[in-house]
Design a protein that fits this description.
This protein is mainly alpha-helical. 66% of the residues lie in helices and 0% in strands.
Length: 330
C-alpha cells in the first residue's frame, strides 16, 4: 500500500508568475489594438471635416461653371433658334421628339460659328477681322441679330462681373488667364462705347432743307470710313473664355451645350417638353455624344470652309418674323 502511494508523482502548484506575465501581454495587445482603432477613427473624422490638401477645382473650372450657368444674363431665353417657327410650319400638330430638331440646330451652329470661335481662341488679336467675316457669312438677318445681341450681353457681363473677378483673383495666386485677351476685350468695350456715343450724336431730326450735292458726297465718304464692329457671340465667347483660362475644348463644348440648353428651354415654354423630359434630354448620353461628334468632325475646319450645313434652318429662322403670334425673338 505504501509503495503504491509513493509511485504517484507529486503535482506541482501553479506558477503565479507565468500566469501574470500572460495576462499582462494580452492586456498590452488589447491596448495596442484599441489605439490602432482610435487612430483610424481620428483619421476618418479629419478626412470628412477638413478640406483636402489639393483643391477639388481650379480657377478655370470655377469660371467654366459660371459660364455654363443658365442664369448668366445673356438673353438666350428670348431666342428659340428657329424652334417656334419650325413648330408653326409643321404639317402635323402631333407631338414629336425634340432630338431631330436639336441635332439640326447644333449642326447649324457648328458649321457656321464654331470655326470662327476656334480661330478667335487661337488668335485673339484677329477678333475684329473674324467678327467682320462672320457677319458677312451670315445670310439670315434674324440669326445675325440674335448673335450680336448675345455678344453685346456677354461684353456687358465681362465688363461688370467676370473681368473684375479675374483681375481680383490674379493677385491671390489664381490663374489670371491671357493678358492679351483682356487687352483685346478692353479695346472692344471701348469701341462699343464710342460707337454708341457716335450713334446717339449722329441722330438728327429729319428736315426738308436742300443741301449741296458735293457736301452730300463728302458725308457719304465720311460714313464709308467708319467701321462699326458687330460683336458676334461666337468669337467674343472664345476670347472671354481664353481670358478666363478655360481650355479650348471645354470652351467649345460649353458653347454648344449652352445652345442645346437654350433650345430645350424654349421647347419647355412652347409646351413641347415637360421640365423632367427636358432634363432627361440634357443629361442623356445621346446629347453628349452628339456634341462630341460635332466637335471631332469640325475641329480642323477653317473659317474659309465655314458655311450653313442645314439650309432649311435659315428658312425657319427667317420666317419667324412672319408668324401671326410669337413668344420668342427668333
Amino acid at each position: 500500500m505504501v509503495q503504491t502511494i509513493s509511485a504517484i508523482p507529486h503535482q506541482l502548484p501553479p506558477n503565479n508568475d507565468m500566469r501574470t506575465t500572460r495576462d499582462e501581454q494580452s492586456l498590452q495587445d488589447e491596448i495596442a489594438r484599441l489605439k490602432s482603432q482610435l487612430a483610424t477613427a481620428h483619421h476618418n473624422l479629419n478626412s470628412t471635416t477638413q478640406p483636402p490638401a489639393t483643391p477639388l477645382s481650379t480657377p478655370s473650372q470655377h469660371n467654366l461653371l459660371l459660364l455654363s450657368d443658365s442664369a448668366l444674363p445673356l438673353g438666350s431665353f428670348a431666342f428659340s433658334s428657329g424652334l417656334e417657327s419650325h413648330l408653326a410650319h409643321r404639317p402635323t400638330r402631333h407631338p414629336r421628339p425634340i432630338q431631330p430638331f436639336l441635332s439640326l440646330s447644333l449642326q447649324t451652329l457648328t458649321t457656321t460659328t464654331l470655326p470662327y470661335l476656334l480661330a478667335a481662341y487661337r488668335s485673339p488679336t484677329r477678333l475684329q477681322e473674324l467678327d467682320d467675316e462672320l457677319d458677312a457669312s451670315i445670310l439670315c438677318h434674324v440669326t445675325r441679330r440674335a448673335s450680336t445681341a448675345q455678344g453685346k450681353a456677354l461684353l456687358t457681363v465681362w465688363e461688370r462681373a467676370l473681368g473684375k473677378i479675374v483681375v481680383g483673383g490674379a493677385g491671390d495666386g489664381d490663374e489670371g488667364g491671357d493678358e492679351s485677351c483682356r487687352a483685346v476685350l478692353a479695346g472692344v468695350l471701348l469701341e462699343l462705347k464710342e460707337t454708341s456715343t457716335a450713334g446717339m450724336q449722329k441722330k438728327k431730326p429729319k428736315t426738308t432743307t436742300f443741301i449741296n450735292e458735293d457736301d452730300d458726297d463728302d458725308d457719304d465718304d465720311d460714313d464709308d470710313d467708319v467701321i462699326i464692329p458687330h460683336y458676334h457671340f461666337g468669337p467674343l465667347w472664345a476670347v472671354v473664355t481664353r481670358a478666363l483660362a478655360i481650355p479650348l475644348h471645354d470652351s467649345a463644348y460649353v458653347f454648344l451645350l449652352n445652345h442645346a440648353k437654350a433650345v430645350v428651354s424654349a421647347a419647355v415654354r412652347a409646351s413641347v417638353l415637360g421640365p423632367y423630359q427636358a432634363q432627361a434630354v440634357l443629361g442623356s448620353a445621346w446629347l453628349r455624344g452628339e456634341i462630341e461628334g460635332l466637335l471631332r468632325g469640325n475641329w480642323e475646319v477653317e473659317v474659309q470652309e465655314a458655311g450653313q450645313g442645314v439650309p432649311v434652318m435659315d428658312l425657319w429662322v427667317g420666317r419667324h418674323e412672319m408668324l401671326y403670334s410669337r413668344i420668342f425673338n427668333s
